[in-house]
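Memo to structure team: turn this sequence into structure tokens by end of day. - J.P.
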Amino acid sequence: MPRDGKNITLPQVQHALMTALHMDKLAAGSLTKTLSPLCREDGTFDLVDTRRHNVIEHDSSFTRLDFRQGDNHTFQPDMFRAMIDDADGGPVTLRSLAKTFVRRDKESRAAGAPRLPLNLWFVRVLQAVSVMNTAQTGGILTKEVLEAVFVDERFPDVILDNPKPRTVFTQLGNALGMMRFVIFGP
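Reply from structure team:
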């Protein structure tokens, strides 16, 4: 992948996901396909393009403000702490992610954000559990792992060194597990 974040191709992204994060071909391909709307005629995009609102970036993020609130790109430490607090002092789990999901939906609606279109609602659900799926750490995310991913914007060794395949099926399983708590309560 280009180190400057420019002129990235979809095959480069898919290869990086498969090699660095141990995603199987279907998972890497599915995730890569979501970037297609960002590509220029030459088949490339720049990393900054991923910020384009309502393509893959959406309202109700766990750690970023909504588009209507101004800066929807900058990490918000208070929002990160709220996600950690939703775990009631323990590690983040599907149960606590459901709590965060519901809380952020209420906050987003109170800030005047419109309902997400169905396609972005599904993106939101899958993104809500994406770190859980990528980590493959037994259904828990420690504060240290979350700080590395969200604060430092890097994947810690516990993720990179874990060869367990990340699949579409584990992603969907995590999404369904979280949604069970969203629907029936934590």
